[in-house]
Specification:
about 70% helix
Length: about 70
């Protein structure tokens, strides 16, 4: 599989996760859980932005590279 295909699949997975976090945030009753989910969603948004900009580099030890 080409690097671009792997990167695209990873971006789509991150985007799907962000969508799932948003749904969970609106459906949870616990303020503590809502805050934890929000932090995780923000981290996913940051990772997605870095991947889109190409700031992640391929690593021989990691299959998806590091940011």
């Amino acid at each position: 599989m080409a690097d671009s295909s792997i990167a695209l699949e990873f971006l789509l997975s991150i985007k799907n996760g962000i969508h799932t976090y948003a749904i969970a945030i609106t459906e949870t009753m616990s303020p503590e859980l809502r805050q934890a989910l929000y932090r995780q969603m923000e981290q996913s948004i940051d990772l997605h932005a870095e991947m889109e900009k190409g700031h992640c580099r391929r690593s021989s030890q990691l299959s998806f590279g590091t940011c």
